[in-house]
Design a protein that fits this description.
Elements (H helix, E strand, L loop, with lengths): L1 E4 L14 H9 L3 E5 L10 H6 L3 E3 L2 H6 L3 E3 L22 E4 L7 H9 L3 E4 L14 H20 L7 E3 L2 E3 L3 E5 L3 H12 L3 E5 L5 H7 L3 E2 L20 H14 L5 E4 L14 H4 L7 E4 L16 E3 L5 E4 L8 H19 L12 H6 E4 L2 E2 L15
Parallel strand pairs: 1-2, 1-4, 2-3, 4-5, 5-6, 9-10, 9-12, 10-11, 12-13, 13-15
Antiparallel strand pairs: 6-16, 7-8, 14-15, 16-17
Helix pairs in contact: 5-6, 5-10
The structure holds nicotinamide-adenine-dinucleotide.
Length: 386
């Protein structure tokens, strides 16, 4: 199968779907790989490195798309001009694998379906043990959790570690992490490595031990009995619980230097955990990094893609697409996730997975032009727009 890797076209996207190392692995699996010239440069991968790994370079996106039996990307195909959509350049019946973002960019879904494509959306890969090596959501959340702490540290007017020097003692920064899923746990680990004192909260009871094992204190409060779905995600909390949670957070805010907010509920607006009045409790110079910015934000003052500074001197960073700020390692993880999914769906030896395979079925958004994923049924009738 010919696998095609175009340059990403979304502004400020610096990742690339496949690294040279993964190109070499795919060649060993019997595939050919075509790469658009310059596709990996922003992530630190040269055209020469792709050629050495066995890829063929193509100078333009048009040629690249025409060559694709399997198109791999980070972002879904996007409009090139008002009249032309990237997906329309795909050969009929090709396969697309990458993030689909169908709820925010439904036009990509419809253009791909219009080309009778089969689409495997990485955000739909089921979060089961067998599919962990294909879980790009977790990989990217890991990168975001790490980078969120560095953003906070760079903005904060004090240092993170305890330092005892001849000139005096510097006390450690106090960090509160809200939501301890994949990103939150990585944020705890990163803040601890920098020497901060860390507290964290998550309504899922299983998280308490994970937080403690990373050296952070768990914010104790009565947890709801049915906080978790069968898939391990948090359910939407009741308004009464959120009020209690806000009180517990408010009690800690006056001493906090940094809040990293990562709380999300699948398919819903992110819960408001820090209100405008709560921000007023924080010290001048304190920093909130809101990783839920694109889902509406955990802080009432968050603006996605912007840093807001309050009259009281608190900065609220509405973090967006942090993996693109660490493109080399983010691409490395993303490419390995893609490789593992490709290997699972199109094995070199042995049979392809059965039609009812949980990963093949779960990740498939569109099959030969038909929108098949249950979560996308509501988008079926939307007309395509360029
Ligand atoms: P997410 O990004 O959807 O949410 C982030 C965190 O916010 C979650 O930990 C959630 O519990 C928390 N949250 C929700 N409401 C909150 C509130 N009111 N206050 C504070 N925190 C709140 O979650 P995620 O990081 O993608 O994953 C969550 C869980 O999914 C994991 O911890 C794990 O159990 C499961 N998971 C399983 C696999 C696997 O088995 N392959 C892979 C990844 C994740």
């Amino acid at each position: 199968m010919n696998i095609a890797v175009p340059r990403e076209t979304i502004p400020s996207e610096t990742r690339v779907a496949l690294t040279p190392a993964v190109v070499a692995l795919l060649k060993r699996e019997g595939h050919t790989v075509t790469v658009q010239a310059g596709a990996g440069l922003a992530a630190g991968f040269t055209d020469e490195a792709y050629v050495q790994a066995g890829a063929t370079l193509l100078p333009t996106a048009a040629e690249l798309y025409r060559s694709a039996e399997l198109l791999v990307k980070v972002h879904p195909p996007a409009p090139r001009t008002e009249l032309v959509h990237e997906a329309d350049a795909l050969p009929e019946g090709a396969i697309y694998m990458g993030f689909l973002n169908a709820f925010t960019q439904p036009e990509a879904l419809h253009h791909l379906a219009g080309r009778k494509a089969t689409v495997y959306a990485l955000e739909f890969v089921p979060r089961i043990t067998r599919a962990q090596s294909m879980d790009a959501l977790s990989s990217m959340a890991t990168v975001s959790g790490y980078k969120s702490v560095l953003l906070a540290a760079a903005r904060l007017p004090k240092m993170f570690p305890l330092l005892m020097t001849a000139a005096g003692t510097i006390t450690p920064a106090q960090v509160l992490i809200l939501g301890a899923g994949v990103a939150g746990l990585q944020a705890i680990a990163t803040a601890r490595r920098l020497g901060a004192k860390v507290e964290a909260f998550d309504p899922r009871p299983a998280v308490r031990e994970q937080v403690k094992s990373l050296g952070a204190a768990f914010v104790e409060m009565e947890l709801p009995k049915d906080a978790e779905t069968a898939g391990g995600y948090a359910k939407e909390m009741s308004p009464e619980f959120l009020v209690k949670e806000q009180e517990a957070i408010a009690a800690r805010l006056p001493k906090m230097d940094v809040v990293i907010a990562t709380a999300q509920v699948f398919g819903k607006r992110a819960p408001i955990l820090v209100t405008v009045d709560m921000v007023k409790l924080m010290k001048p110079g304190a920093v909130i990094v809101d990783l839920a910015a694109e889902q509406g934000g955990n802080c009432e003052l968050t603006q996605a893609g912007r840093t807001v500074e309050t009259p009281g001197g608190v900065s609220i960073i509405g973090a967006v697409n942090l993996p693109a700020t660490v493109p080399q390692d983010a691409s490395l993880l993303y490419a390995k996730n893609l490789f593992n999914l490709i290997k699972h769906l199109f094995p070199k030896t042995g049979p392809a997975p059965e039609a009812d395979d949980e990963i093949a079925r779960g990740a498939c958004a569109v099959r030969a032009g038909e929108i098949v994923h249950p979560a996308l049924q509501g988008l079926k009738d939307k007309p395509a727009s360029p």
